[in-house]
Amino acid sequence: MGIDSLVESVTPYRLKPIWAHTYVAPFFVLCAAWAYVWLENYGYEEYYELGMIGFAIIGVLQALVLLFCHWLVSVRCALTCTYEPNMNNATYVKVTPMPNNGWAELVPLVRTKRGSQTKLWFEFQRVHYTWNADVKSFETTVFDTCRPMVFFQKAQGFESDEQLDDAKYNFGENKTEMVLPQFWELFKERATAPFFVFQVFCVGLWCLEDMWYYSLFTLFMLMTFEATLVKAQMKNMSEIRNMGNKSFLINVYRNKKWTKVKSDELVAGDIVSIGRSAEDHSVPCDMLLLRGPCIVDESMLTGESVPQMKEPIEDVEKDRLFDIESDSRLHVIFGGTKIVQHTAPAKTGEGIKSPDGGCICYVIRTGFNTSQGRLLRTILFGVKRVTANNLETFAFILFLLIFAIAAAAYLWIRGSQDESRSKYKLFLECTLILTSVIPPELPIELSLAVNSSLIALQKLGIFCTEPFRIPFAGKVDVCCFDKTGTLTTDNLVVEGVALSSNEEDGMIRTASAAPSESIQVLSSCHSLVRFEDDLVGDPLEKACLTWCDWTLTKADAVMPPKSAKGASGLKIFHRYHFSSSMKRMTVVAGYQTSPSADPTLIVTVKGAPEVLRDMYEDLPADYDQTYTKLTRQGARVLAMGIRKLDETKTSELRDKKREQLEQNLRFSGFVVISCPLKPDTKSMIKEIIDSSHSVAMITGDNPLTACHVAEVLKFTKKSLKTLVLDEIDVAVVTWKSVDEEVVLPLKPGEKRNERLAFFKNYEFCLTGTAFQYLVEKEHRFLRELIPHVRVFARMAPKQKERVINELKSLGRVTLMCGDGTNDVGALKHANVGVALLSHPYDATKAAEKEKERKEKIDEAKKLVAVGATLPTPPGVARRGEAPAGARARAQVHPSVANAQSRLDKLMKELEEEERAQVIKLGDASIAAPFTSKYTSIASICHVIKQGRCTLVTTLQMFKILALNALISAYSLSALYLDGVKFSDTQATIQGLLLAACFLFISRSKPLNTLSRQRPMANIFNAYTLLTVTLQFVVHFGCLLYIVNLAHQADPKEGPTDLEAKFTPNILNTTVYIISMALQVCTFAVNYRGRPFMESLFENKAMLYSIAFSGFAVFSLASGFSPDMMQQFELVLLPEELRNTLVMCVSFDLIGCYVIDRVLNFFLGDMF
């Protein structure tokens, strides 16, 4: 069990003195021992090379141990620390985070003294953890909000400096500052990464082989790539820094008076006054709203553009406990959001009065513990390095290393037979064989494969905070969707009010013909507010009020249209807001029959028909029949009830429970709302189903409505009946079909065949109640059933989360698509979570803005050329500038003055645009790893396409890498003994060719439509291993055959001098040309292309690169350009050998292509 959602475990350690570290003393002893053995047993002069090799091995081992301490925290703890069971004696702790929350770290344990108290704490990912001696565990120092509402309602802030100091000591201040690291710090971190160190080691080996050009070219390529990544990282960090809140002065109630303090000095427990600011300041931290309602723009946090209404807790029941999970949506203003409208609290009521007309709030979360802070931490620490399939990469390299070790052992044994050969040179060659398994481009290419997809998704309006999830998108098995706002539009249409099941007069289509009580419920029972000229709130409630044609005022009153004679306006006095657990909303409103009379109070209730069923005084006989019939037609149905109260003053209602108001209601009809599907939902769902994915709907809506939508979208087959498991009668649990014609027991039978037939012959729908019952009582059956369920209805947010986790536990890679509010849990827990924002992103407008920006920059350049000067940044005085009025103003030409004013205006516009372009927190939503700016589910298809493209790219890179590594291992061992070596120029050109081809592979784009075939999920499968092995056999056969022919054409006499300087000859030329040709063939054959991404002929860059390389190889083989041969340090081949070489390459290409495609057809992903 972890400490919290971030930290899994904390282990205490004591740091050893430096001489006791394992990488110091043992290696000192080892060096002394080797020196003694070498000098005493072998001799300095006779075995100089052996002695140096021994010291080199010890040096490399010591460097490796040091680096492993840097790379792996567990190794560092084992070699530099001792485990300390007593936390009071520990100096460091190893902190292991939860999966996908960054990496383990060894952090110092800090002791802070304050009087007689000593606080033991550490900071991990900007969060403070304090040692609690009573429970023997570390805890996050956050304010405990689980208190009765009366605690907050009666709060008076900090009444003394001692209380304030205590709070600062325990909770810290409201700082979300980020220290930006220097370029060299970040570069050092990347330069000590395993791959980079390995590549620098390889470069050193190549230098010892006198391959200077190739070594320096590779080193330059690596340094440039890493420096580019560091620059990009620094830019991202500065953008994330801009997301944090800027400090500003805010009114705080301390020591029983209002004072102004900086917002970054706020502490949990402070009482503040905040409202809409002229300077457009963000809310500095998470606050509970005590007095005065407000409207908040939360788009920076959730991505939702619809402003949210926030209610104070002054009228909430005093003894009710505050639950941050359920109450935060209505009563908490989150840090990073903006107040767009607020109402000053009444001056007559109880509680603290506001000094500036702002809302009174109680600070509950500060710094990186706020919702905004958590999102910043996810972006900062979620995943440090962007690569695909790390574990598989390591396993595959180990697999290739087996062949390399075999080749190196062969070379050492054969080479050692000749006593005259240099052991140093032989050892160097063996090391080169082992390192040839990993080409220097590998980490670059693996990063590029993911980064290319990231960039492509950003261009499509999809922002990703956790790049490691992209390859998961290519493996998705099940796609789950929320219904309302995801599959259907937010533009709801009210069909009318249904009073009975009678088709002719039971449904009233117009508001003017509807009963007055129905209109009263629809116009008053809502959470809408007037913001400037717009209505803000739930789209369903907006649709109902618009249909009634009533008008909402800023004073929380609703007025009837002028055409409605006799109807009086309603004033809303109290709201019990809608919650997904209660499935209803209740409002106390009132109207006046005459100006002097007290208002007549009414209770209006609106909610799920099954919930309101027991609240009516007289239930209509056809109640159930009416709403089930409407829901089967796909409509959203809400029941309405109304009741007149005897009380005339709202103060008399304060002590009444909600349940007392929600009884003896009069039935006011059912409001019938249709949710039209989004224009492209049908076609996108068809594409997802046709691409071999299962689909499921997880919604909070009525099961019959959801089943209708599922049938329209072909989630369920029309030929099969859909069984619904809804209300649970513990005695007999039964499935009922949508039309109620079929009733079946919960379990079909114990036999496997019976169960398979049951799952095959029906479609299934589970409601939240039924799902909970199965989780608690029939969990084993639920695990069998859940992959076959197509509709989950009336699901609470926590239940949606549980569905995703159940599917994942069955080994299904799960995608969840929903909005950024009540689906957050499910989106976070899915392997791939995509949040759709409610405001559409227009790519055309974005392109137009970019064009305008470029035009402005061009115009500014021209104006500077005319004589205008760029404005000085604010606060920066020009050098030698005199005080104002000290110097007479110089005469400026009118044309220059006009140019100057135009330039100043342009620069101001560009600066504002630049400010608007910084990545906002709304782009990276707290809701999900992927956030789409589009409202369409087309973004799901884009994410899956890019995921598949990344997967396939990685797979083909590994195939090519494996074949090249195996050929290299043979070339460097067996051929080295024949005296075959490449010149520096040849190695550089070959490296360039490989780098170019790998680069163009990673730039492949996915196709416009998803294919029915799904790519291989991992590297280790029969197809990949067999195709690599058989292709290598063909390559090996060709290489062996050509080398034998070269030997015949140019026979050698006497032993081969392995240390001789490189000189071009027939054998070297033949091997170089054939190895280049084999590499070109490997790229051409193993490029996957369709059906997942562009084919070789569509990927023009890749095609031209292979065509150019092929042409170069053919030119070298035919020898028609002597100058080119000389540049490549090659010799002209005999005609017979030349012709055989061309035929051999052609055979290799055709043979490998046939092998790969035949194996792919039978064992791979080609149907």
UniProtKB/TrEMBL annotation:
> What positions does the domain P-type ATPase A occupy?
251-377
**Subcellular localization, as worded in the UniProt entry:** Endoplasmic reticulum membrane
Domain (P5A-ATPase transmembrane helical hairpin): residue spans on this chain: 16-83
For this protein, the parts annotated as crossing the membrane are: 20-39, 51-73, 394-413, 958-977, 983-1001, 1022-1046, 1066-1089, 1101-1120
Query: Which BP terms does GO give this entry?
Result: intracellular calcium ion homeostasis
| Membrane topology listed for this record | Multi-pass membrane protein
Q: Predominant location of this chain?
A: endoplasmic reticulum
Give a Pfam family name.
E1-E2_ATPase
Under Gene Ontology molecular function, one entry of this record is: ATP hydrolysis activity
Q: Which GO terms describe its cellular component?
A: endoplasmic reticulum membrane
The alphabetized UniProt keywords are: ATP-binding, Endoplasmic reticulum, Magnesium, Membrane, Metal-binding, Nucleotide-binding, Phosphoprotein, Translocase, Transmembrane, Transmembrane helix, Transport
Concerning its family, UniProt says: Belongs to the cation transport ATPase (P-type) (TC 3.A.3) family. Type V subfamily.
Q: What is the official name of this protein in its record?
A: Cation-transporting ATPase
Q: Provide the species name.
A: Caenorhabditis auriculariae
